[in-house]
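Encode chain A's predicted structure.
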Amino acid sequence: MNRRSFIKSSTLSAAAFTILPRNVLGGTGYTAPSDQISMGLIGCGAQGRGTLGPNFARRANVVAASDCESVRLQKIQAVIEKETEKAKGQVYKGFKLYADYREMIARKDIDAIIIATPDHWHVIQTIEACRAGKDVYVEKPMSHSIAEGRAMADAVAKYNRILQVGNMQRSWRNFRRACELVRNGYIGEIREIKVAIGPPPVKYDLPAQPLPKSLDWETWIGPAPMNPFNDELIFMERGGFPNWRNYREYGGGMIADWGAHMFDIAQWAMGMDDSSPVEYFPPDRKNRIPLTMRYANGTLMTHEYNLRKTDSNSVRFIGEDGVIDISRSFFDTMPSKLQDEVIGDDKIRLYHSDDHYSDFLDAMKTRKQPLSTVEIGHRTASVCHIVNLCYELDRPLIWNPEKEEFFSDFEANRRRSNPLRAPYTLDV
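Encoded structure for chain A:
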């Protein structure tokens, strides 16, 4: 065989080898190197453990974590080892802990960062992760202000990164089906949407308590206003979550916490992922009229506190020809036959994902946009921020979704951003 024939034969053999099923190459548990994604986690509290444990730890290589509270940071290692053993049959021992998340982000072998910190940290950590060439999974609400959300979107675009927002209800069948029924006109033109979630945040007013030695309070505060420590912000987990989200300096209350889920479903159903309501009216408590929003097409959306006793967080779509009630615990339609309606392939079909976490990992591999993109997360979070601002200012607000500014309202426009402590900025 001459040299040219040998090279041609070798190339054909190599090509044939590369298309063999991977289980032939490495057994049923084999994962090709190109499929192995390494991840790091920032924020090891209740949400971080929940997102990491049964979700990413079983689907990727979670190799590191960071937290400014040392006890919590140490505990996360046991979570990783337990979940990787379940998924892969052996305990992962290469896990590394970082008090400073920036050291973890600087690692060249980490592909993606999971951000499960309080809302006021999301923008800084997202920008830094994107700048370091990492993809990002960030918990909802995506941002802590309108300006922060836009900065996050700019960072994702500038550094060509993939970002998935933790609005995982979009990956749940009943929510997707409800939105498809609305989009395709099965209950007629939508007259009103009622979104039931909790209240807006309040100004921080907790008394000072002794600072635990395990907590770096300066780091926990980060870019947000400095206030005295109180354990309600970080340690009140007792089967649930700490209450930092109830204070506007660090979170957006239940408006942002659950609104990031329920307003998100309303936006999806209305085809408004790139927009939002254009008018916001504060509640008229004397006449028992709730805070009301209006889309440009005339559809009204109200903030309710409860629609049904069985679930305080839900969405009701009221159309000319029917009603759809949707939450995590119920999916009801009127007429009831809509439950069994077959939505044909010729109808509007929404992005289909059955697993929010796998969807993000797949997007990382294909470099195609995931289900809940940074722009979608930004628009949903913006609705939450404007609702909170409408409550706080107690006056009507007129919003331009294209320019992302309020009409003739200096104070409202100033409040599109939060003041950041030095040296933090929104520079992308």
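The two ends are 58 Å apart (CA to CA).
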